[in-house]
Specification:
Largest sheet: 6 strands, mixed
Oligomer: single chain
Strand content: 5-15%
Bound molecules: phenylalanine
Radius of gyration: 20 Å
Amino acid sequence: MTLEHEEVLVRRGPRSGLPIVVAVHSTALGQAVGGLRMWHYPDWRDAQADALRLSRGMTYKCAVAGADKGGGKTVVALPSRTDDQLRRAALLDAADAIDSLGGRYATGPDVGTGEPDMDVIAERTSHVFCRPASSGGSGDSSPHTAAGVVATLRALVGGSVTGKRFAVVGLGRVGGAVATALAADGADLVLSDVDAGKRALAEQLKATWDEPAAALTADVDVLVPAALGGVLTEAVVPELRCAIIAGPANNQLADESVADLLHERGILWAPDYVVGSGGVVNALAVELDGSGPARAAELVEGIGATVAALVADARRAGITPARAARDRAEARLRAAAATRETVGSGRG
Ligand code: PHE
């Protein structure tokens, strides 16, 4: 059994007492980046498993996006009841853990964390993206992730979403923004969230509201998974009634083989780590490359063309878009590893 990850740090936060996991999957292309997820897990080992999967996804996300960055992720396992004081303690604990890696990994927002949290992280480490603009950061990444998703959806349905049917499952900061943009363009929407309070958004957008399980298998043109991972299981594939699946949720496939099952059913699955790369693309462009908002938006918009190109490549080669994306990422990772070896032997 090989350990694919370069480093996994697990610690009980000294302030919060909560499990903190920082997974650095790969720095082959550069510093590992990936958000901080604060979520509820049955056991700290489940949080660790999530960090392992999510950090791997970030390696592929950065590789296909063309960024010279690797993949990492931080996960904090929250108890069922939290308060502001415990959250702050956990953020500081996570920040210390991140800082102890000496810059090999930098964090950002993810499920359960947002812009103001990044300022708390910054109290203890400089390795953090997406601080508020008032603190010199690029701000919340979710509108940019959403913009990349919408660009992808337009590209996949042939330009205009008007009159097309979409099911958006998950109405958090990204899913909610995607739904709002689609509604503004006259799309026909089925919306869903585990939080029934999000029903108000569905009403506001004049969309149909459904339970998550029903929305997943709704009769639509495009299914947009925008919540947590693992929703596309072997069992759900035969029940699906969409032609295309493209959304920002990380790790949508319960198992990589589900991509083949979807392909066999004639459902086009756009790799989640490409569709959902807008947040990180924007943050890197603004914070590292000094791009202005217009240039950054152009790069995010380009995600649509990247997905379309992957789909075209896959068709030509008779493979799944999942495979085409993986090949593209792994080619970059291999090239980086080869360069490293050459440099290494040159020195040695
Ligand atoms: N949550 C983001 C993602 O999954 C992570 C991120 C965004 C990291 C922006 C850094 C900057 O892609």
